[in-house]
Every structure is written in C-alpha cells, then in structure tokens.
Amino acid sequence: MAKVVDEDAPKSLILEFKTPQGEVWATMTAEAKEFKTGSVGFYANGKLKNPKNGLPYQVGCNIILVGSKE
C-alpha cells in the first residue's frame, strides 16, 4: 500500500474547546508534525482552564493522516 500524502494540508490547525452549550474554554494551535512512527499529521499539547472555577486540564492531541505511515 502506498503512503498517503496530503499536499493540501495547512501548516497548522486551530482547535477550539467548547461545551455543548457553546461556551468556549480555550483554543490551541496544532502544528504540522511528522511522528516518530513515520506518520504525519498535527500535534497540540498544553493546558486549559475551566472558566468557571479555574481548575486546569492537561491537553494532548494527535491528529494523524490515515495511511501516512510508511
């Protein structure tokens, strides 16, 4: 199976974290990345806070292009 490449993918994506009611908790940028496995996609890591009480949450996000691993 040939490795999938997305020539039209941007260099980054903006991730928005919001409640089902539409309250935005945070936004993060996921940068384009080639992972150690050989797959490509986007990666974001950081913290967001509950706007009501300030409690922190750790966020890690891998967005992998299906079929991009050699």
Descriptive terms for the model:
70 residues, mainly beta, 4-stranded antiparallel beta sheet, 53% strand
Overview of the molecule:
With 70 residues, the protein is mainly β. The protein has one domain (14-64). 0% of the residues lie in helices and 53% in strands. It contains no helices and four strands. A four-stranded antiparallel sheet has the order 1-2-3-4, with no helix packed on it. Strand 3 and strand 4 (56-64) form a beta hairpin. The radius of gyration is 15 Å and the shape is elongated. 1% of the residues are buried.
Write the layout of secondary structure elements.
Elements: E1 12-18, E2 24-34, E3 40-49, E4 56-64
Antiparallel strand pairs: 1-2, 2-3, 3-4
User: Main sheet: which strands, in order across?
Assistant: 1-2-3-4
Structural class: mainly beta
Low-confidence parts, pLDDT < 50 over ≥5 residues? none
Mean pLDDT: 95
Shape: elongated
Rg, please?
15 Å
The topology string of helices and strands comes to EEEE
Distance between the termini: 9 Å
What percentage of residues falls in helices of 4 or more residues?
under 10%
Q: How many runs of DSSP E, i.e. beta strands?
A: 4
Q: How many structural domains does the protein architecture include?
A: 1
Instruction: Bin the strand percentage.
Output: over 45%
| Contiguous helical run count | 0
- Main sheet summary: 4 strands, antiparallel
Short description:
The protein has 70 residues and is mainly beta. Helices cover 0% and strands 53% of the residues.
